[in-house]
Design a protein that fits this description.
By secondary structure, the protein is α+β, with helices and mostly antiparallel strands. It has two domains: 198 residues, Sandwich (Jelly Rolls); 92 residues, Arc Repressor Mutant, subunit A, CATH 1.10.10. The strands form two sheets. An eight-stranded antiparallel sheet has the order 2-3-4-5-10-7-8-11. Strand 3 and strand 4 form a beta hairpin. Helix 8 packs across helix 10. It is globular, with a radius of gyration of 20 Å. The two termini are 39 Å apart.
Length: 319
């Protein structure tokens, strides 16, 4: 049975799971999971009221869905979520793709955490005024204006780049015996936000369209449907039906949130899965292409080269 937790009003707070006794406070900084829910900890570091970093490291004994209900968007903190950036030693049955997300609080969102899967998530909260100062003249760009104004709904997600994954790996590998561990975590948290914003600002966005309360949730439904079967090219009419939007609106909002067109997103995830099958599952090039729906091996090689910069056979050898 899935446990559903409503985290509304607790963005960045350590008591998200503690209200019903699911977690036990040890020193107001670290929360330890009881055996009934799983094993692991959630730690919170806040050396300044303008910035906090939370480290989620645990394995759940049951499926959990964390829901956030829409609230007024004029919050003093902007919260960035860095998920699945560190690969567990034993890969899960269903790959969990690395991603970075930031959204206004006036959107309904839900995140599912499967039982038995190592969860590594880093949450960074930063004061709006501080972020505005750090971004400097970039605040004039439409993406940043939506992020900082507090007057417009926004939702942005980036696939976790190798640069972001390396920062997260360094952070989570740091021994807690370091006397300056909290300082180190805070610096790395800012570095993660810097890297995300640097990648976000590479988008060529001319205008930002406001999202309705439940549209973020519906766009994630589209994303999941889009990547559910990587052997099949997406059907735009079917995806528009899932979203409850016109095709033109779906195309516009999907690109705004995820930074890619529907088809480009599908192909990117498809090639990421191809890379995983080649290196981790040790499949041959022909087996990988066939599993992902390519009937022509030359076509598979061309697409792989376009998205990953190497031919699949070369990529597999380097692994």
């Amino acid at each position: 049975m899935q446990l559903v937790i409503d985290s509304s009003g607790t963005a960045g707070r350590i008591d998200v799971l503690s209200e019903d006794g699911h977690l036990t406070s040890t020193d107001h900084i670290e929360m330890v999971f009881p055996p009934a829910l799983g094993t692991g900890t959630i730690q919170r570091f806040a050396l300044s009221p303008l910035l906090f970093v939370m480290l989620h490291r645990y394995i759940l004994s049951r499926d959990v869905e964390l829901r956030r209900r829409a609230e007024p968007s004029d919050q003093p903190m902007i919260t960035f979520s860095f998920r699945n950036l560190v690969r567990p030693s034993t890969p899960p049955a269903t790959p969990m793709r690395p991603a970075v997300q930031v959204s206004s609080s006036d959107l309904d969102l839900a995140v599912s955490f499967p039982a038995g899967t190592p969860i590594y998530t880093i949450i960074v909260g930063i004061n709006v005024t501080l972020l505005r100062q750090l971004l400097g003249h970039q605040v004039q760009k439409p993406l940043v204006q939506a992020l900082l104004s507090g007057r417009q709904s926004y939702l942005y997600e980036e696939m976790g780049s190798l640069a972001v994954q390396q920062i997260a790996a360094d952070l989570l590998a740091r021994p807690e015996t370091d006397p300056l561990f909290a300082f180190y975590v805070t610096v790395k948290g800012q570095e993660l936000v810097y890297q995300f914003m640097s990648e976000l600002l590479q988008r060529d966005t001319k205008a930002v369209y406001s999202l309705r309360e439940d549209e973020g949730k519906r766009l994630f439904m589209v994303r999941d449907e889009l990547t559910r079967d990587l052997r099949q090219a997406p059907s735009i009419p079917q995806l528009a039906s899932v979203a409850g939007m016109s095709e033109s609106k779906l195309r516009r909002l999907f690109r705004q949130v995820f930074g890619l067109s529907l088809y480009a997103y599908y192909q990117t995830v498809r090639m990421q899965e191809a890379a995983r099958l080649l290196r981790e599952a040790k499949l041959s090039v022909s087996e990988t292409g066939y599993r992902l729906g390519f009937e022509n091996l030359s076509h598979f090689t061309r697409v792989f080269l376009k998205y990953l910069g190497q031919k699949p056979k070369q990529y597999a050898k380097l692994g």
